[in-house]
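Friendly challenge for the regulars: who can give me the structure tokens for this chain first? No prize, just bragging rights.
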Amino acid sequence: MEVNISKENQVVTAALVGRLDTPASQEIAPRIESLKNDAAGTIVLDCSQLNYISSSGLRIFLSLRKAASEKGGKVIVRNISNDIRSVFMMTGFLNLFEIQ
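First reply, four minutes later:
Bragging rights claimed.
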């Protein structure tokens, strides 16, 4: 699992690459925590190269959404595959996030 973070103005983009399963969630947790510092702006989660997401990965997305909500920011999820869209649909995450 790889996370590539870039920042431009008030928008922080995290490109997720690989499988976001339980071990990967634990591995990337410190990098994701650092995103919460920018939660007052816009956080974009680019999922164009994300192959899989587990419940641990969904918790990471949810924790970012909560931090952004508390600080007046927002989280945008971009480029999800049909498989991940199905997971989002089954879990209600399609209604929690702005999907692009």
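The CA atoms of residues 25 and 61 lie 10 Å apart. The two ends are 22 Å apart (CA to CA). Your move, everyone else.
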